[in-house]
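Sample intake sheet
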Amino acid sequence: MSTMLAARPYTHFSAPDDRTATEPPELRGLRRDGVRLMIATPAGIGHTIFSRLAEHVRAGDVLLVNTSATVPGQLDGDRNSTPVIVHIANRLPDGTRVVELRSAPDAVATILDGRVGEQISLPGDGRVELIAPYPKFGSSPTGLGSRLWRARVTAPQSLSHYLCHQARPISYGYLSTSFPISAYQTIFALHPGSAEMPSAGRPFSPELVTRLVAQGVIFAPITLHTGLSSQDAGEAPQPEWFEVSDATAGLINSSRARGGRVIAVGTTATRAVESAAQPDGTVAAVAGWTDLVISPDRPVRVVDGLITGWHNPEASHLLLVESVAGPELTQRAYDAAVAEHYLWHEFGDSCLLLNVP
């Protein structure tokens, strides 16, 4: 698999560094579903709040939601007496882990000079040994070294138990402080495995879900365990484990046959369902690893709309958004988000993009 994107996003904008959500909305005096929601369709751009989503979807629509739960994976490491931040992510089939080294104390910058065989001490007698660049050498577009590593992580007890007690949620320097793991769970979280929160689902509240179900909107669960989202510009997303069940495939296929729209809650749900999509647009039950990159070279086959947060310039996720909404509508949405001071990142505001009636 190539680690570089074959295409670059059409959408261009200036990153609004002063509009980063530095804390969960609950700490800003809002409910989860109180964040802002942009409605972007070919008819125009509208602005509301997430709790009013039911006004913009209809009976028979399918909302694809990711049931992956976030697990803690950020640790303070010691690298030859130099402090580093270690991010521990996906469990690979051979039991090793994908890890990333970042600068201490707040993980602002990547560390690209890791070496095969290097060992890094972790709290509580844990240790990381770098085995090989992941997925191969040169995965950083800078060409200066590898951002991600396949690594052996050892601990005095099971790794899941160790991380639960020693690690905190993966975060980056734009946050005001460290928040508990509960802040990184959506109400759909059932299956532990995500390195970072599938954040598009975070604004959903039990009350909003109840309203949507009563209205006739169908919720279809999928699972995709997210990797590390800190891709450099031009870097393709890493392989991730996913599952689309037979029941969910049936819900999608029957709804589409009746003319219902399929709206993915997040790029993770989109990647999962599109990894199970057949050439004719039907969905099959599938589980395994996906390295699918949704782009102009492989556009969406199933998804008609997308609920998502806001992505950084040239992020690979923008290619996926453009595939769902079209490049022109995506550009108009991002121009409006910058002009209207929407908040970025996992605790920020949301957008519903629909390029179909």
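Comment: The chain is about 15% helix and 25% strand. The chain has two domains: 17-70+179-354, 98-166.
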